[in-house]
Amino acid sequence: MQNPLAALEQNYTTVQNQVNMLPLDCNQVERDGFNAQLVAARNAYLSCLDKAFRGDDPQVVALTAQLKQQTQSIKDDVQNMGDIAKVLDQITTAVKTASNLAALMISA
C-alpha cells in the first residue's frame, strides 16, 4: 500500500529542492513559475497533515501512484536542467496531481 501523505510530502520536498537549485541564468518569469508551483505543492501537503486518507479508495491509490511517478520524473529531468521549461512543466503536472490528491482528502 502506498502512503498518500508521504507522496504529497515527497512531491513538496522535491519541488522545494528544485526551486533552491535554480540556475543563475533562470529569468524572473521562470523563477516566479517555480515559486508558484512550490506554494501549490506546499499547500497540498499542509492541507492534509491532520487528515487521514482512505487507503482503499481507488482514486487515492491511482493518484498516489501517479504522483510518485511524476515526482520521480522531476528528479530525472532536473539532471538535464538545461531545459527549464520542461522541468517547470513536469513540476506543474505533478503539483496538479498533488492538488487533486489533497482535494480527495479535504472533501472526505
3D structure, described in words:
With 108 residues, the protein is mainly alpha-helical. The chain has one domain (4-16, 27-107). It contains 4 helices and no strands. α1 (4-20) packs antiparallel against α2, α2 packs parallel to α4 and α3 packs antiparallel against α4 (84-107). 31% of the residues are buried.
What does the secondary structure layout of this molecule look like, with pairings?
Layout: H1 4-20, H2 28-46, H3 58-78, H4 84-107
Query: Tally the helices: what do you get?
Result: 4
Counting structural domains, the number is: 1
Low-confidence region ranges: none
Topology order in helix (H) and strand (E) letters:
HHHH
What value does the average pLDDT take?
82
Amino-to-carboxy terminus distance: 19 Å
The count of β-strands is 0
| Computed structural class | mainly alpha
The 3D shape can be described as elongated
Fraction of helical residues = over 70%
Radius of gyration, in angstroms, nearest whole number: 14 Å
Strand content: under 5%
Major sheet description: none
Brief write-up:
By secondary structure, the chain is mainly α. It is 75% helix and 0% strand. It has one domain (4-16, 27-107).
Key structural traits:
single chain, 108 residues, mainly alpha, 4 helices, elongated
